[in-house]
Amino acid sequence: MASSKEIAENSLFGKMVTGKISCEKVYEDDYCIVIKDISPVAPVHLLILPKHAVYSVSCLSNDSEQDKTAMGYIMTIIPRIASILQIKSYRLVINEGEQAQQNIGYLCIHLIGGRELAWPPA
């Protein structure tokens, strides 16, 4: 049986991160790529994909320094991405599981902005 890491690596997002499938990158560095969502819900709707393949938030390990480093770094890069796009307000969303609409087995952070966002979000 494949591990969640192997499933993530072979998912659509995993193949985009590794370059097996081409995609339009808005940003890239050693830890992540950022792409436009193909079904945007706002003028700015990006997906931040860690290069370190993780299936979901629940698969992150508190014992893994690689998980901590990758996810911690990504959280610090988000303001830079927002600045590049010239947006001051935005929402971050992580879908976890089928009922939350996680359609691809690969952890991603949605960065949504470019207009006033409603609350509650669901």
UniProtKB/TrEMBL annotation:
InterPro entries, alphabetized: Histidine_triad_HIT, HIT-like, HIT-like_sf
Organism domain of life: Eukaryota
Domain HIT: 12-122
Pfam families in the cross-refs: HIT
GO MF, any single term: catalytic activity
Name of the protein: HIT domain-containing protein
Organism (species): Polysphondylium violaceum
